[in-house]
Specification:
This protein has 200 residues and is mainly α. The protein has nine helices and no strands. The chain has two domains: 93 residues, RNA polymerase sigma factor, region 2, helix turn helix motif (Rna Polymerase Sigma Factor, Chain: A, Orthogonal Bundle); 73 residues, Winged helix-like DNA-binding domain superfamily/Winged helix DNA-binding domain (Arc Repressor Mutant, subunit A). It starts with 11 loop residues before the first helix and ends in a 5-residue tail after the last helix. The N terminus is likely disordered.
Length: 200
């Protein structure tokens, strides 16, 4: 995983059990089981809300979209084919809901410049970002574009790999590598400036 150097992960057996449980819940939801939806909501509410909030920075609007996401899960569970993790599928729904909200507000801006060299071995930078003061990280995250912020949020806080993030965002894996490359460089620049007392 991209953020594995900084994020504590459970053991493999627990992860596999959670994956099986999530797939079972989706099957039950597809059969009209509302208690399964409530259980899935409880297990994913915080992480999905945090992801939405990182893109909108509006708690009320984020809560509305969170609600819409799980309504979509209820309506679409029968179409879930199991080719991806349940988590990836749900984050994909959240991503599209946020994009739709941005488009309606005229705020969508794409910026995926391709760097000449993408260094995937800069784990020291990733760890430094993850270890900074939370307020500083939040400030610097708010300076990123929506696409960069989404990619870095899924990498750091949801511990998704490039392929999973690409599935969520509906784009190529190479594009995600580019977004994360740029996002980490911008975060490091911002955090470095803050540590030197320079306001960004």
């Amino acid at each position: 995983m991209i953020g594995s150097c900084c994020i504590l992960t459970g053991n493999t057996k627990q992860a596999e059990a959670n994956l099986e449980t999530a797939h079972t819940l989706i099957k039950r939801i597809a059969d009209g089981d509302r208690t399964a939806l409530a259980e899935l909501y409880r297990s994913m509410e915080r992480s999905v809300y945090r992801f939405i909030l990182s893109r909108l920075n509006d708690p009320f609007e984020s809560s509305d979209i969170l609600h819409d996401v799980f309504i979509e899960v209820w309506r679409s569970a029968g179409r879930f084919e199991g080719r991806s993790k349940v988590q990836t599928w749900i984050f994909g729904i959240a991503y599209r809901k946020v994009i739709d909200r941005h488009r309606k507000a005229g705020r969508t801006k794409l910026s995926d410049e391709t760097p000449e060299i993408i260094d995937e071995a800069d784990s020291a930078e990733t760890c430094l970002v993850a270890s900074q003061d939370a307020a500083q990280v939040n400030h610097c995250m708010s300076q990123l574009t929506d696409e960069h912020r989404s990619a870095i949020s899924l990498a750091f806080w949801e511990d998704m790999n490039y392929r999973e993030i690409a599935d969520v965002c509906g784009t190529a894996e190479g594009t995600i590598k580019t977004r994360i490359f740029h996002a980490k460089k911008l975060l490091m620049r911002c955090l470095s400036a803050l540590s030197q007392g320079v306001t960004t």
